[in-house]
Amino acid sequence: MALYQETPYDYINTALELAVKAHIGQVDKGNGLPYILHPLTVASRVRTPEQKAAAILHDTLEDTDLTLDDLWSASIPERVIELVGILTDPKDGDFASYINKVAEDYDAAVVKHADLEDNLSPTRSRGLNDEIRSKVYAGLEILEKKYPELKYM
User: Fold this and answer.
1) If pLDDT is split at 50, 70 and 90, which confidence band does 123 have?
2) Nearest to 44 by CA among 76, 69, 12, 9
């Protein structure tokens, strides 16, 4: 028996379960709290169910052992998997190129913008050095230039 009534958006619960398990034991460098609170904060700042699920999962492919195949096996919708793929920083190129790629998809840009804003929040930004902080500001500038409304979300 489920603890909740089934809905068309149960994949959000699945995303949450996957992310909690994947991030178990990880600690936020900026505040020492469990890392999962960051993806949850990002999810709280976005609007659509797909954006929320992608926000919950946005760091799993680059920071945990979770794979795209795991997302498929868990029946995460194709659109959410696509967004998580777009949001995953390949770490092999320059950050501006990565952000410009993210900016090609509005939903990915919304999630990334919320991610970057949370990275600058007072509770998390203590873990950022000057180089990373300048990248975050540059990323926000790229996203807000393409989608000015993101400044006000």
Assistant:
1) confident
2) 12
The reply to whether 143 falls in a domain is yes
Residue 105's domain spans which residues? 10-152
What mean pLDDT value characterizes the chain?
A: 93
Nearest to 42 by CA among 51, 33, 50: 51
Size of the chain, expressed as the number of residues it contains: 153
| Res 1 pLDDT > 50 | no
> For residue 144, with 0-12 CB atoms within 10 Å meaning exposed, 13-18 middle and 19 or more buried, which class applies?
middle
Q: Is residue 58 part of a domain?
A: yes
Both tokens of 63, joined, read 């920071």
Q: Could you tell me if residue 2 is inside a domain?
A: no
Q: What percent of the chain has pLDDT over 90?
A: 80
Question: Is 113 a residue whose pLDDT tops 70?
Answer: yes
Give me the number of domains the chain comprises.
Answer: 1
Residue with tokens 């659509």: 48
Say which CATH number the domain at 136 has. Answer: 1.10.3210.10
